[in-house]
Write a structure and sequence with these properties.
Helices cover 79% and strands 0% of the residues.
Length: 313
Protein backbone atom coordinates (compact mmCIF):
# COMPACT_ATOMS: atom_id res chain seq x y z
CA UNK A 1 0.00 0.00 0.00
CA UNK A 2 2.85 2.41 0.82
CA UNK A 3 4.46 1.62 -2.52
CA UNK A 4 1.20 2.32 -4.39
CA UNK A 5 0.66 5.60 -2.54
CA UNK A 6 4.23 6.70 -3.21
CA UNK A 7 3.93 5.94 -6.93
CA UNK A 8 0.60 7.80 -7.12
CA UNK A 9 2.04 10.90 -5.46
CA UNK A 10 4.96 10.87 -7.90
CA UNK A 11 2.59 10.88 -10.86
CA UNK A 12 0.55 13.94 -9.83
CA UNK A 13 3.21 16.51 -10.92
CA UNK A 14 3.39 14.75 -14.29
CA UNK A 15 -0.32 15.38 -14.87
CA UNK A 16 0.01 19.07 -14.07
CA UNK A 17 3.08 19.35 -16.27
CA UNK A 18 1.24 17.79 -19.20
CA UNK A 19 -1.71 20.15 -18.84
CA UNK A 20 0.60 23.17 -18.70
CA UNK A 21 2.62 22.17 -21.78
CA UNK A 22 -0.44 21.29 -23.85
CA UNK A 23 -2.13 24.57 -22.92
CA UNK A 24 1.03 26.48 -23.80
CA UNK A 25 1.31 24.79 -27.21
CA UNK A 26 -2.30 25.61 -28.01
CA UNK A 27 -1.79 29.22 -26.95
CA UNK A 28 1.26 29.49 -29.23
CA UNK A 29 -0.54 27.90 -32.20
CA UNK A 30 -1.30 31.31 -33.72
CA UNK A 31 -4.99 30.73 -34.34
CA UNK A 32 -8.19 30.28 -32.37
CA UNK A 33 -11.65 28.76 -32.57
CA UNK A 34 -13.38 32.03 -33.49
CA UNK A 35 -11.13 32.75 -36.47
CA UNK A 36 -11.29 29.12 -37.68
CA UNK A 37 -15.07 29.02 -37.33
CA UNK A 38 -15.66 32.08 -39.50
CA UNK A 39 -12.99 30.98 -42.00
CA UNK A 40 -14.62 27.56 -42.44
CA UNK A 41 -17.99 29.20 -43.00
CA UNK A 42 -16.50 31.31 -45.79
CA UNK A 43 -17.92 34.55 -44.44
CA UNK A 44 -16.22 37.81 -43.61
CA UNK A 45 -17.18 39.56 -40.41
CA UNK A 46 -16.03 42.77 -38.82
CA UNK A 47 -13.05 42.58 -36.49
CA UNK A 48 -15.21 44.04 -33.73
CA UNK A 49 -17.49 40.98 -33.88
CA UNK A 50 -14.50 38.63 -33.75
CA UNK A 51 -13.03 40.49 -30.79
CA UNK A 52 -16.36 40.45 -28.99
CA UNK A 53 -16.70 36.70 -29.50
CA UNK A 54 -13.13 36.12 -28.28
CA UNK A 55 -13.83 38.17 -25.18
CA UNK A 56 -16.95 36.10 -24.48
CA UNK A 57 -14.87 32.91 -24.65
CA UNK A 58 -12.02 34.37 -22.60
CA UNK A 59 -9.55 34.18 -25.50
CA UNK A 60 -8.54 37.81 -25.01
CA UNK A 61 -6.94 37.03 -21.66
CA UNK A 62 -3.25 36.35 -21.14
CA UNK A 63 -1.89 32.82 -21.17
CA UNK A 64 -1.53 32.72 -17.39
CA UNK A 65 -5.08 33.90 -16.80
CA UNK A 66 -6.53 31.42 -19.28
CA UNK A 67 -4.59 28.51 -17.83
CA UNK A 68 -5.39 29.32 -14.20
CA UNK A 69 -9.08 29.80 -14.99
CA UNK A 70 -9.21 26.48 -16.84
CA UNK A 71 -7.23 24.61 -14.17
CA UNK A 72 -9.36 25.98 -11.34
CA UNK A 73 -12.58 25.02 -13.14
CA UNK A 74 -11.25 21.56 -14.00
CA UNK A 75 -10.27 20.86 -10.39
CA UNK A 76 -13.89 21.60 -9.52
CA UNK A 77 -15.19 19.17 -12.15
CA UNK A 78 -15.96 21.73 -14.86
CA UNK A 79 -14.12 21.20 -18.15
CA UNK A 80 -15.97 24.04 -19.86
CA UNK A 81 -18.04 24.13 -23.02
CA UNK A 82 -17.06 23.58 -26.61
CA UNK A 83 -16.07 26.77 -28.45
CA UNK A 84 -17.65 25.36 -31.61
CA UNK A 85 -20.88 23.63 -30.54
CA UNK A 86 -21.45 25.17 -27.12
CA UNK A 87 -21.92 21.66 -25.69
CA UNK A 88 -20.61 20.67 -22.29
CA UNK A 89 -17.16 19.19 -22.91
CA UNK A 90 -17.37 16.42 -20.33
CA UNK A 91 -20.78 15.24 -21.56
CA UNK A 92 -19.61 15.25 -25.18
CA UNK A 93 -16.48 13.33 -24.26
CA UNK A 94 -18.35 10.72 -22.22
CA UNK A 95 -20.80 10.24 -25.08
CA UNK A 96 -17.95 9.24 -27.42
CA UNK A 97 -16.09 7.12 -24.87
CA UNK A 98 -18.09 3.84 -25.14
CA UNK A 99 -17.19 3.53 -28.83
CA UNK A 100 -13.49 3.83 -28.03
CA UNK A 101 -13.79 1.37 -25.12
CA UNK A 102 -15.47 -1.12 -27.44
CA UNK A 103 -12.76 -0.76 -30.09
CA UNK A 104 -10.04 -1.07 -27.45
CA UNK A 105 -11.45 -4.27 -25.98
CA UNK A 106 -11.92 -5.94 -29.37
CA UNK A 107 -8.44 -4.92 -30.58
CA UNK A 108 -6.66 -6.17 -27.46
CA UNK A 109 -8.60 -9.46 -27.48
CA UNK A 110 -7.85 -10.12 -31.16
CA UNK A 111 -4.21 -9.12 -30.72
CA UNK A 112 -3.69 -11.57 -27.85
CA UNK A 113 -5.57 -14.28 -29.72
CA UNK A 114 -3.17 -13.93 -32.66
CA UNK A 115 0.14 -12.97 -31.11
CA UNK A 116 0.43 -15.28 -28.09
CA UNK A 117 0.03 -18.60 -29.94
CA UNK A 118 2.14 -17.38 -32.87
CA UNK A 119 4.89 -16.02 -30.62
CA UNK A 120 5.06 -19.22 -28.55
CA UNK A 121 5.01 -21.40 -31.67
CA UNK A 122 7.80 -19.35 -33.26
CA UNK A 123 9.92 -19.71 -30.10
CA UNK A 124 9.54 -23.47 -29.70
CA UNK A 125 10.15 -23.96 -33.45
CA UNK A 126 13.17 -21.67 -33.39
CA UNK A 127 14.85 -21.21 -36.80
CA UNK A 128 12.58 -23.76 -38.47
CA UNK A 129 10.23 -23.13 -41.37
CA UNK A 130 7.21 -22.02 -39.33
CA UNK A 131 9.40 -19.65 -37.31
CA UNK A 132 10.79 -18.03 -40.46
CA UNK A 133 7.28 -17.62 -41.92
CA UNK A 134 5.92 -16.06 -38.73
CA UNK A 135 8.91 -13.73 -38.40
CA UNK A 136 8.48 -12.59 -41.99
CA UNK A 137 4.81 -11.91 -41.30
CA UNK A 138 5.69 -9.90 -38.21
CA UNK A 139 8.20 -7.79 -40.16
CA UNK A 140 5.55 -7.07 -42.77
CA UNK A 141 3.01 -6.15 -40.12
CA UNK A 142 5.44 -3.78 -38.42
CA UNK A 143 6.47 -2.18 -41.70
CA UNK A 144 2.95 -1.23 -42.78
CA UNK A 145 1.46 1.91 -41.17
CA UNK A 146 -2.10 1.76 -39.90
CA UNK A 147 -3.54 3.98 -42.62
CA UNK A 148 -2.08 1.71 -45.33
CA UNK A 149 -3.45 -1.42 -43.66
CA UNK A 150 -6.81 0.33 -43.35
CA UNK A 151 -6.91 1.11 -47.06
CA UNK A 152 -5.96 -2.47 -47.99
CA UNK A 153 -8.69 -3.91 -45.79
CA UNK A 154 -11.23 -1.43 -47.09
CA UNK A 155 -10.34 -2.34 -50.68
CA UNK A 156 -10.39 -6.14 -50.33
CA UNK A 157 -12.86 -6.87 -47.54
CA UNK A 158 -15.12 -3.88 -48.10
CA UNK A 159 -15.11 -3.01 -51.81
CA UNK A 160 -13.95 -6.16 -53.63
CA UNK A 161 -15.59 -8.83 -51.47
CA UNK A 162 -18.31 -6.71 -49.87
CA UNK A 163 -18.01 -8.58 -46.59
CA UNK A 164 -17.75 -5.60 -44.25
CA UNK A 165 -18.89 -1.95 -44.34
CA UNK A 166 -16.18 0.44 -45.47
CA UNK A 167 -17.50 3.35 -43.42
CA UNK A 168 -18.92 2.75 -39.96
CA UNK A 169 -22.67 3.15 -39.84
CA UNK A 170 -22.66 3.33 -36.06
CA UNK A 171 -20.90 1.65 -33.16
CA UNK A 172 -22.17 -1.87 -33.77
CA UNK A 173 -20.02 -5.01 -33.91
CA UNK A 174 -20.05 -5.28 -37.70
CA UNK A 175 -18.81 -1.71 -38.15
CA UNK A 176 -16.08 -2.34 -35.57
CA UNK A 177 -14.53 -5.31 -37.40
CA UNK A 178 -12.46 -3.39 -39.99
CA UNK A 179 -10.94 -0.87 -37.53
CA UNK A 180 -10.33 -3.74 -35.09
CA UNK A 181 -8.48 -5.75 -37.75
CA UNK A 182 -6.46 -2.68 -38.73
CA UNK A 183 -5.27 -2.09 -35.17
CA UNK A 184 -4.73 -5.77 -34.36
CA UNK A 185 -2.50 -6.46 -37.39
CA UNK A 186 0.17 -3.96 -36.36
CA UNK A 187 -0.05 -4.79 -32.65
CA UNK A 188 0.02 -8.54 -33.26
CA UNK A 189 3.21 -8.21 -35.28
CA UNK A 190 4.88 -6.30 -32.45
CA UNK A 191 3.52 -8.58 -29.73
CA UNK A 192 4.52 -11.75 -31.55
CA UNK A 193 8.17 -10.73 -31.84
CA UNK A 194 8.33 -9.70 -28.16
CA UNK A 195 6.62 -12.89 -26.98
CA UNK A 196 8.97 -14.97 -29.13
CA UNK A 197 12.04 -13.17 -27.73
CA UNK A 198 10.84 -13.47 -24.12
CA UNK A 199 10.02 -17.17 -24.44
CA UNK A 200 13.32 -17.90 -26.24
CA UNK A 201 15.27 -16.13 -23.51
CA UNK A 202 13.56 -18.14 -20.79
CA UNK A 203 13.98 -21.44 -22.65
CA UNK A 204 17.73 -20.91 -22.69
CA UNK A 205 18.07 -20.45 -18.92
CA UNK A 206 19.55 -23.00 -16.54
CA UNK A 207 16.33 -23.76 -14.66
CA UNK A 208 14.73 -24.99 -17.90
CA UNK A 209 17.68 -27.30 -18.58
CA UNK A 210 17.47 -28.54 -15.01
CA UNK A 211 13.75 -29.22 -15.28
CA UNK A 212 14.25 -31.15 -18.50
CA UNK A 213 17.02 -33.18 -16.84
CA UNK A 214 14.58 -34.15 -14.06
CA UNK A 215 12.18 -35.49 -16.67
CA UNK A 216 9.57 -32.73 -16.52
CA UNK A 217 7.64 -32.51 -19.78
CA UNK A 218 8.17 -29.61 -22.15
CA UNK A 219 4.53 -28.51 -21.93
CA UNK A 220 4.67 -28.25 -18.12
CA UNK A 221 7.91 -26.26 -18.29
CA UNK A 222 6.46 -23.96 -20.92
CA UNK A 223 3.14 -23.14 -19.27
CA UNK A 224 4.08 -23.27 -15.58
CA UNK A 225 7.53 -21.71 -15.67
CA UNK A 226 8.49 -20.06 -18.94
CA UNK A 227 5.21 -18.24 -19.58
CA UNK A 228 5.02 -17.05 -15.98
CA UNK A 229 8.46 -15.48 -16.31
CA UNK A 230 7.59 -13.99 -19.71
CA UNK A 231 4.43 -12.32 -18.39
CA UNK A 232 6.34 -9.18 -17.36
CA UNK A 233 7.24 -8.50 -20.98
CA UNK A 234 3.68 -9.15 -22.12
CA UNK A 235 2.31 -6.88 -19.40
CA UNK A 236 4.56 -4.05 -20.52
CA UNK A 237 3.23 -4.31 -24.05
CA UNK A 238 -0.34 -4.50 -22.81
CA UNK A 239 0.09 -1.37 -20.69
CA UNK A 240 1.42 0.63 -23.62
CA UNK A 241 -1.18 -0.66 -26.06
CA UNK A 242 -4.15 -0.18 -23.75
CA UNK A 243 -3.06 3.37 -23.02
CA UNK A 244 -2.78 4.31 -26.68
CA UNK A 245 -6.00 2.55 -27.65
CA UNK A 246 -8.05 4.10 -24.86
CA UNK A 247 -6.77 7.46 -25.99
CA UNK A 248 -8.42 6.73 -29.30
CA UNK A 249 -6.41 5.91 -32.40
CA UNK A 250 -7.16 9.12 -34.23
CA UNK A 251 -6.05 8.04 -37.71
CA UNK A 252 -7.97 4.76 -37.74
CA UNK A 253 -11.09 6.28 -36.21
CA UNK A 254 -11.04 9.11 -38.75
CA UNK A 255 -10.52 6.76 -41.73
CA UNK A 256 -13.44 4.52 -40.79
CA UNK A 257 -15.53 7.39 -39.35
CA UNK A 258 -15.66 5.53 -36.05
CA UNK A 259 -17.35 7.87 -33.62
CA UNK A 260 -14.88 7.67 -30.74
CA UNK A 261 -12.69 10.05 -28.78
CA UNK A 262 -9.89 9.86 -31.38
CA UNK A 263 -12.12 11.25 -34.12
CA UNK A 264 -13.49 13.79 -31.64
CA UNK A 265 -9.94 14.99 -30.98
CA UNK A 266 -9.12 15.30 -34.69
CA UNK A 267 -12.27 17.37 -35.29
CA UNK A 268 -11.47 19.56 -32.28
CA UNK A 269 -7.90 20.17 -33.48
CA UNK A 270 -9.12 21.17 -36.93
CA UNK A 271 -11.55 23.66 -35.39
CA UNK A 272 -9.14 24.89 -32.68
CA UNK A 273 -11.70 23.84 -30.07
CA UNK A 274 -9.35 24.31 -27.10
CA UNK A 275 -11.60 23.00 -24.27
CA UNK A 276 -12.25 19.79 -26.20
CA UNK A 277 -8.55 19.38 -27.06
CA UNK A 278 -7.57 19.93 -23.44
CA UNK A 279 -10.14 17.37 -22.29
CA UNK A 280 -8.61 14.86 -24.70
CA UNK A 281 -5.09 15.64 -23.47
CA UNK A 282 -6.21 15.17 -19.86
CA UNK A 283 -7.85 11.86 -20.75
CA UNK A 284 -4.69 10.62 -22.46
CA UNK A 285 -2.51 11.72 -19.53
CA UNK A 286 -4.76 10.12 -16.91
CA UNK A 287 -5.04 6.87 -18.87
CA UNK A 288 -1.28 6.52 -19.37
CA UNK A 289 -0.59 7.41 -15.73
CA UNK A 290 -3.14 4.93 -14.38
CA UNK A 291 -2.18 2.13 -16.77
CA UNK A 292 1.51 2.52 -15.92
CA UNK A 293 0.66 2.69 -12.21
CA UNK A 294 -1.27 -0.60 -12.47
CA UNK A 295 1.62 -2.14 -14.42
CA UNK A 296 4.10 -1.01 -11.74
CA UNK A 297 1.96 -2.54 -9.00
CA UNK A 298 1.70 -5.82 -10.91
CA UNK A 299 5.48 -5.86 -11.42
CA UNK A 300 5.86 -5.30 -7.72
CA UNK A 301 3.68 -8.31 -6.94
CA UNK A 302 4.92 -10.68 -9.66
CA UNK A 303 8.67 -10.05 -9.58
CA UNK A 304 10.41 -10.74 -6.24
CA UNK A 305 13.49 -8.82 -7.40
CA UNK A 306 11.48 -5.59 -7.57
CA UNK A 307 9.99 -6.17 -4.11
CA UNK A 308 13.43 -6.81 -2.63
CA UNK A 309 14.80 -3.69 -4.31
CA UNK A 310 11.99 -1.56 -2.92
CA UNK A 311 12.21 -2.99 0.58
CA UNK A 312 15.92 -2.51 0.58
CA UNK A 313 15.67 1.26 0.10
Amino acid sequence: MNYAFKRLIQLIPILFGITFLSFLLMYMAGSDAVTEMYSNRGVEVAQEIIDERKAALGLNLSFGEQYINWLWAMLHGDMGVSFVTGENVLKAFLRKLPATLMLTGLSIALTLLISLPCGILAAIRHDRGIDLILRFGSFMGNAMPNFFVAMLLMEFLGIQLGLLPVISSGTDFESALLPTLTLAIAMSAKYMRQVRSAVLEELGKDYVLGAKARGISDSVILWKNVMKAAMLTIMTLLALSIGSLLGGTAIVESIFMWDGVGKLAVDAINMRDYPMIQAYVMWMAIIYVLVNLVADLLYHELDPRIRLGVNGK
